[in-house]
Specification:
There is one protein chain. This protein is α+β, with helices and mostly antiparallel strands. The protein folds into 2 domains: 99 residues, Immunoglobulin-like, CATH 2.60.40.10; 92 residues, Immunoglobulin-like. The chain is 28% helix and 41% strand. The chain is built from 2 helices and 19 strands. The strands form 4 sheets. The protein has a 6-stranded mixed β-sheet with strand order 2-10-9-4-5-6, with no helix packed on it. Strands 11, 12, 15, 16 and 17 form a 5-stranded antiparallel β-sheet that branches. The protein starts with a helix and ends with a helix.
Length: 261
């Protein structure tokens, strides 16, 4: 009697397990079928130059052209940048967006550090929902680097810097950075930094200010180049003035000789 009872209880359990297994196999088959019918791929990673233009593309691969309910690009902060709905594209935050041949291309015209991050491409269609990601990393930025002197001290200013960098001072091959004082950095709205350093009691000759980037392990720029350019322009200007002066003197002597005659 007990054996019959155990058998009657076991059969429904086996039936439930078989049904659950069958349901799982069916769901797996449907998901695999959907993946084979349509895929979504976007640009994996881009590293544009600072203040340059960059495009991210998102492509639909489908056996049959799907009916698109939503096709959109989203910024790293989750805000929509461009959306394709009912055949119309709407854009936000000054970007450009074009849809053609099952491809949605997002273009950012003036990249800056605040644009860095992971971008999301999302698709909702009659075939299903898909999404893909693109990583955007901005290359090093530098807007300007210059030095001015006051009361025997030299101060170097670097603007539009990204990522964070350090100012080093040199006099020939001698590193004078230990004799300098770094100012607190200031971050701008575009994500770049303003960096300054003052070299105390500078030497008789002009010191060299260089901007060191720890992330790349190299110097981004140096005032030595600018000083050479300025010196070349000064020498050229002086040479021109000397030639003009020499010509003027010759003409004056010639006129005096004619008067005496």
């Amino acid at each position: 009697m007990e054996e019959k009872l155990r058998t009657s209880v076991a059969r429904p359990m086996e039936t439930i397990q078989k049904c659950a297994l069958l349901l799982w196999v069916l769901m797996f088959a449907l998901a695999r079928s959907e993946n084979e019918i349509m895929t979504l791929r976007s640009t994996e990673s881009v590293s544009p130059h600072c203040h340059g233009s960059i495009s991210l593309s998102c492509n639909i691969s489908s056996l049959d052209e799907p009916t698109i309910f939503l096709f959109a690009w989203y910024a790293p902060n989750g805000r929509a940048l461009c959306e394709l709905k009912n055949g119309n594209i709407s854009t936000h935050n000054g970007v450009n967006c074009v849809y053609k041949d099952q491809q949605l291309v997002l273009t950012i015209g003036h990249t800056k550090p605040t644009h860095e991050g992971k971008y999301l491409c999302k698709l909702h269609s009659n075939v299903g929902a898909k999404q893909s990601y693109s990583q955007l990393n901005i290359q090093e930025c530098l807007h300007s680097l210059h030095v001015h002197s006051h009361d025997g001290n030299s101060t170097c200013h670097a603007r539009g810097v990204y990522p964070e960098a350090h100012i080093h001072w040199f006099q020939g091959s001698n590193n004078l950075t230990d004799s300098s004082v770094a100012h607190p950095r200031v971050r701008s709205e575009d994500g770049t930094y303003e960096i300054a350093s003052t070299l105390l009691h500078r030497p008789h000759s002009t010191p060299n200010c260089s901007l060191w980037s720890p992330s790349s392990g190299r110097y981004l720029s140096s005032t030595r180049r600018h000083e050479k350019m300025a010196y070349a322009e000064e020498v050229t200007g002086s040479s021109k003035a000397s030639s003009y002066g020499g010509a003027g003197t010759s003409m004056a002597l010639l006129a005096a000789a004619l008067i005496l005659l």
